[in-house]
Amino acid sequence: MTVKKNNQLNCNIVLDLLPNYIDHVTSESTNRDIEQHLNGCESCKIECLNMIKSINADELEHLKETEIVKDGLVKTRRMYMLRGIFVATIFLSLLVPGIVNYAINKRFTWYYIVVSSLILVFAVVGVAIFKRNNKIMYALGTATVLIPFYLFIMESIINRYFLTKPVFWFMSRALPAYWMWAAIIWITFCLIRFTNISNGFCIGFGFVLAIIGSILTNSIFLRVSLEESVKSSWISILVCCLFAFISVMVGFYQFMKK
């Protein structure tokens, strides 16, 4: 009976010392006594293993949190670096052509075309790079809004600096054709993005719409009938048919795979 009490007392002491033992702050002689007790006491050994597992789990969680913080810092640094490179690229792209144009012509002429093109490109690319979610949709929306203004500016610059007799093509030709192609692209994108239809079928349908768009575009710009436009567009029609067929075959493959 006395031995049992001593053993119970020893167990209590060992349990009190286990945290220090696991942290390696106990002396060598104490370590030997604890290990001798653990070899003969199953309950204390189990308690020791549970403590070790708990400490390891806490350390692992702490390491995970540390890795998350480090990963966030690395991504933040990369983002700031990317923004710096982006801004520097914009600055140099606007500065160098301006210097060259003014040095050659003693005034700005084609530089306005460069500036307008760069604004369009950097606006779309900037949205695609720095937008966190739905990058393609926002980049496509940005392009859809800015391209009509870009085409109007191109007409004004060309008429002012490069033609002796102005030619006005924006309202009568460019804008109708542009909105038609914008509708084709958005219809195809929405089918891919917001429906469960196979991407191959959606893209194939987009190429079918592109056949119609090609015929109407030639009719608008060449001022010819639809019949004449079909004859002059046979190459683009053939190419669109080929890609539509390939896309539909890919769609069938995706459908059968599901």
Protein architecture, described:
With 258 residues, this protein is mainly α. Among the domains are: 109-165; 169-258, no CATH class. 87% of the residues lie in helices and 0% in strands. It has nine helices and no strands. It has helices at residues 2-22, 28-40, 42-105, 111-130, 135-161, 170-194, 199-222, 226-232, 234-257. Helix 1 (2-22) packs across helix 2 (28-40). Mean pLDDT is 87; it is low at 1-9.
What helical percentage do the residues reach? over 70%
Q: What is the residue-mean pLDDT, rounded to a whole number?
A: 87
Report, as a whole number of angstroms, the end-to-end distance: 72 Å
* Content-based structural category: mainly alpha
What gyration radius follows from the Cα positions, in whole Å?
A: 36 Å
Shape: elongated
Order of helices and strands: HHHHHHHHH
* Parts with pLDDT < 50 across at least 5 consecutive residues: 1-9
Count of discrete alpha- or pi-helical segments spanning 4 or more residues: 9
Strand percent estimate: under 5%
According to DSSP, the number of beta strands is 0
Largest sheet report: none
